[in-house]
Amino acid sequence: MTAVADMTGSPGPARETAEGLAALREHIGDCHRCALGDTRTTLVFGVGDPGARLMFVGEAPGRNEDLKGEPFVGAAGHLLDELLASIGMTREDVYIANILKCRPPANRDPQPEETQTCTPFLEEQVRLIDPAVIATLGNHATRFILKTDRPISALRGRLFHRGGRCVVPIFHPAAALYDRSKADVLSDDFKRLRAVLDRVASGEMPAESGDQPALF
Length: 216
Hints:
By secondary structure, the protein is of the alpha/beta class. It has helices at residues 13-28, 63-68, 75-86, 112-129, 139-146, 152-155, 173-178, 182-201, and strands at residues 47-48, 54-58, 95-98, 133-137, 160-162, 165-170.
């Protein structure tokens, strides 16, 4: 594929990233690299701005996502939209992807072999988009990105640095749907996320408050 040149004659970075993501999606194809390919309806690749400075990483598609082929389109997705609006953003400003590209049956937890098979695609998405900030939503995304066994409850509210990126662990929006006491916690987490984004945009790297090894 040939990238469209910008005014300087060099390939436009956003266009290059979009083409890289399209090539990755084509490479994944009608994936049956693990058993989830036999039970899903639609592969859910990811959606959003290829040039996003903020990338959300969730766990796996649910029923609505499996039907539509887009992450976070059910009730948790509507709450995510509200939380983004509360900090002056929309999903068009960010990129959203999951640990798994296919829905596990009955929304069960991802299995280790499924995660091992699917996460190289996520890692390539991160490499292509090159976000300044990654917000991990829930236990599975946080544990994968930070390479830790610690629960999200012990990590949210803290900031980690990974390969020049800020990683902000946040409760999965679905948690607030089942436990309304987490709604205020999620709101606070997004305010912290906004503060991290603003400081990164100003050229300041916020101080780290974590000690796990780097992944990316």
